[in-house]
Fold this sequence. Notes:
This protein is α+β, with helices and mostly antiparallel strands. Helices cover about 40% and strands about 15% of the residues. It is built from 8 helices and 11 strands. The protein has helices spanning about 25-35, 85-120, 125, 130-150, 160-185, 215, 235-240, 265-275; strands spanning about 5, 50, 55, 70-75, 190-195, 200, 225-230, 260, 285-295, 300-305, 310-315. A 7-stranded mixed beta sheet has the order 8-7-5-6-9-10-11. The chain has a two-stranded antiparallel sheet with strand order 1-4. A two-stranded antiparallel ribbon has the order 2-3. The radius of gyration is 34 Å and the shape is elongated. It starts with a strand and ends with a strand.
Amino acid sequence: xxxxxxxxxxxxxxxxxxxxxxxxxxxxxxxxxxxxxxxxxxxxxxxxxxxxxxxxxxxxxxxxxxxxxxxxxxxxxxxxxxxxxxxxxxxxxxxxxxxxxxxxxxxxxxxxxxxxxxxxxxxxxxxxxxxxxxxxxxxxxxxxxxxxxxxxxxxxxxxxxxxxxxxxxxxxxxxxxxxxxxxxxxxxxxxxxxxxxxxxxxxxxxxxxxxxxxxxxxxxxxxxxxxxxxxxxxxxxxxxxxxxxxxxxxxxxxxxxxxxxxxxxxxxxxxxxxxxxxxxxxxxxxxxxxxxxxxxxxxxxxxxxxxxxxxxxxxxx
Length: 317
């Protein structure tokens, strides 16, 4: 260790790291000790006082009348932070770290819920929600910890101003986060309506009419949307689908809740499709793969031909 002593007119090796306008010296030295910087006050030395850029500082162990000259010893072999910013930087670092941890928990919880409940099985990209989720994550950190790092300056602002800045940042951050989460929630599919030979992702705003109780009684797939079979005749479905965007967007029949039925009622149609030469089946022929059409993309749904249940959804490669 290389020890530097600052007392009287002596300028120790570490003095170049200090600046004038120091905060309370006693608190600064205590903070230095906590940081592993050695600070000591040996026996009284007559006439010794700490001199930093023309300003004399003393530490008083008792009443002012019994002031004892202060001698400072510092281990200058390690990096020494500037004396005035020992406490402010520590508070600033803790605030930024706390806000970062809060933001990580916030976006982590949203991402978990989105991927496991609102958009399971790759439906996030099918509905165009990936860009929205990325925007929410980015804006949460930009308007959160990054803005806090820029504005939270204890060495330049008072406590009331710092408090006001933090409250303003949190209100702005949570408002934008809530808006992004709300956008994701209203765009999520609540039904996967099977029309003719494919599924269409249907949101809560798309549904027209009242969904039958027999459909709502069926558990949702993977905590997400409910797959349903649309009951109108195949001829009517084919005509509706063929007149709307060439199978690339949901036909009107997909929005009519009165025609919804449990997916198991579509087993005869699924088996009919499986026997077709153009069907997309697996090697075991016990499952059927059909398209899933969303607002921004397409995926593949795997159906069990015996039970009519939805086995899974896979992205298009």
